[in-house]
Amino acid sequence: DDDDDIPQLSSHTLAALQEFYLEQQQREGMKTSQGFNQYSIGSIEEDWQLSQFWYSDETASCLAKEAVVAAGEGGRIACVSAPSVYQKLKELDGKDFSVCILEYDRRFSVYGEEFIFYDYNQPLNLPENLLPHSFDIVIADPPYLSEECLQKTAETIKYLTKGKILLCTGAVMEEQAAKHLGVKMCKFIPKHLRNLANEFRCYVNYASGLD
């Protein structure tokens, strides 16, 4: 019988596979059901291979509201490698500010014209219509805890901002953050959906509501 040559999945593996597909279907069902918000945190799942770790809902809300206040009425906000803050800003549905997202992960292109592909290795490889010093505040979360990554991201931040900077990175980067961006650590401690091994902090170069 030729069927003997066909590898069979064990009942345990098959059950695990069915459970995985069921969970996937449920997730997709939630996304397509009425009331799903495409901007909610987690609507695009973290990709750890890209060093992605989403903020908790409370942290994203706090940072988004801080950015709106700092940008002022009619302000422009740029989120550099900080998609969960971008999503929360869109959820706020503010009419008195605009926002764009600079991100390496092309899944975020679903957000249309506000998405700008960004690779920190080419910090000034930006669209021509992204004018220098055209954002009231830049929120950035460099993907890696290295001085090289911070230094290159800092080039982008300094190109984009009119002055105000809100940086989120590890506590170990305090000295380099001050050196490359002139920012100081805030009292506010950002939290993530999953606990990170490294202590995370926020840094600003203006009088913020995060202290």
Radius of gyration: 20 Å
Sheet bearing the most strands, described? 7 strands, mixed
Helical residue percent band: 25-40%
Order of helices and strands, N to C?
A: HHEHEEEHEHEE
| Main sheet: strand order | 3-2-1-4-5-7-6
Instruction: Based on the coordinates given, report the CATH architecture.
Output: 3-Layer(aba) Sandwich
For the record, give the distance between the C-alpha atoms at the N and C termini, rounded to a whole number.
74 Å
Mean pLDDT: 83
Q: Tell me, what is the CATH class?
A: Alpha Beta
User: What count of structural domains?
Assistant: 1
Number of strands: 7
CATH topology call: Rossmann fold
Which class do the helix and strand fractions yield?
alpha/beta
Overall 3D shape: globular
The CATH homologous superfamily name equals: Vaccinia Virus protein VP39
**Treating each run of at least 4 consecutive H or I residues as one helix, how many helices?**
5
List the uncertain runs.
Answer: 29-36, 39-43, 46-51
What percentage of amino acids are in beta strands? 15-25%
What this model shows, in words?
The protein has 211 residues and is α/β, with parallel strands linked by helices. It has 5 helices and 7 strands; from the N terminus they run ααβαβββαβαββ. A 7-stranded mixed beta sheet has the order 3-2-1-4-5-7-6, with helices on both faces. Strand 1 (75-80), helix 3 and strand 2 (97-103) form a beta-alpha-beta unit. The chain is globular and about 60 Å long. The chain starts with 10 loop residues before the first helix and ends in a 7-residue tail after the last strand. Pfam families: N6-adenineMlase (PF10237). It is found in: Cytoplasm. It comes from Oxyruncus cristatus. It catalyses: L-lysyl-[protein] + 3 S-adenosyl-L-methionine = N(6),N(6),N(6)-trimethyl-L-lysyl-[protein] + 3 S-adenosyl-L-homocysteine + 3 H(+).
